[in-house]
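Weekend entry, working from home. Most of the wet-lab plans are on hold until the incubator is repaired, so I used the time to fold the two sequences that have been sitting in the queue since the last round of cloning. Logging both here for the record. First:
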Amino acid sequence: MIETLFFPFSHISKEQLKIVSAFFHNITFLPLVADFAEDPLLGQMAEKKVLQPVFPLAQDLGRVENQARSYLDWAKLHRGNEKNLKSLLKDQPYFMEDTDISSIQSQIRSGTKKNKTSVDQKKAVQDPLLLLKFAQLSDVQNEGIEDELKVLEKTRSLLFSELTGETSEKKNEKSRPGSPGPDTVDPGRRMTRERLVAWFSYARQKGVFDGPGGMPLLVTTSPAVLDYMVSGSEGVINALDIDSIKVHEKDCVNKGKWQQDFFQFLKEIILSKNSSGVALPQADDTCLLCGQIKVCLFPEGCTKAFFNTPGQSIAVCLVQLKS
């Protein structure tokens, strides 16, 4: 059994969910929330088993949320005081202990005078869960901004079409599936290495690599993540690279069977470490949606050195859609 995991993000956006659900029938996800009560879409996808969330322990989540809240409270109080912030973050970038506001203020007063950090303090910054929490907060905020910009662009386009008398037929030609779409911000470009190291560390804590069977299949929508992993590793096998592959649209009745065949196709490639001789399943119907896929195999040696995953090889699958 090959475990399929979405990585290295602790938040999955609507666009990322659309992409992975086009290729995979279900996928494991490590969200940093107690449940999906505040996100109906993710809740629905979890009920349908498209997403299989592995939620954090209540005490772990409570701890990092308190730490993150303390930092944000401190940032609000000292907005604009970048000098003290940089001085504090230089030695202790993620507050691990004594994170109430009064304690943080005390750290600033003493820390800016002496540029010394104890061994315990240096160890304290190594908290993958806290880094992932900050990354999650950033990703959620950026998704909200992107959604607002898309609404503005849609409104602007509609007004322009009305002013110029552009027909709906011409507009449909411009938005035809398979044609290049607008650039989407890749969250994996921000703090790529830190995200990866933190995610692998947390994933090991959650035991997601402990299941029996073959190597895990890690699925990402971030080209930056895969590029970083390949550039920092040796002996990587480029097992599959398809620039255009037809996939089924959301409500297509043929989608489920194609996804099963597609996953079997990936399993054979991962196990044989080669795509030659393996038949790619075809989506031969009226669906117009197309995507891209790339699969890289990381042998045991490079993953041990790069991500501290001893005794295990991994397969990384990059998937994207063409709008």
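Second, folded right after the first finished:
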Amino acid sequence: MSTNDDSLLSAAVMAFLGWPAAKMPLSDESAVADLARTNSVDANALLARVHDAVAASDDLTISDLGTHSDGGATAYKRRLAASRPALSSAAIDALASRWFFRLRWLGIESGQDAPRYFVRYGGEGATPIPIALYRRRTRDGVIVDEVLKDVDEWRPDTRRQIHTFFAFSLESDLEEVTATEAAEFEEMVRAREYVPFRSTAAPR
């Protein structure tokens, strides 16, 4: 079998993303390598085609998708299928799932890293005071959850607080904030003085 075989590419895309078994999109290069070995093809060449398909899914025009009743899923898949007709419907589904996951959970469009920030509030009184800052970003296509420990010092979110925010929202004590508020909190860390956000006018 050749790396140019369309059915192999579709299978490789699905293996790379862990579709449909994974709960969230993966970037599993080893799965592509295993598939290449099984089919006696060059792993690097096959992986390059997978990355090309992923890049194509990131580069679609999406500015009007929000006007669609289903959030643009049907239109997105139709456009992706038109731009990559060699891919199977299952591979299109896998790529669409990845794209919407990244947009909805990570705020990422066209492959750009746009971190999302979360805080835990504490203190007493009518106005809540932020006491901890978390962020979710991507690094080489992999989700990275972190907590700010000190000035410019981010460490892994080993307690999985951000995961809990998304998976069990009613059990989470985090709230999402803007990048501006996150920067404001970082200034609080530098000053060692924790006060309500300037934009906060009422309890959250």
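Plan for Monday: verify the second prediction. DSSP finds seven helices and five strands in the chain.
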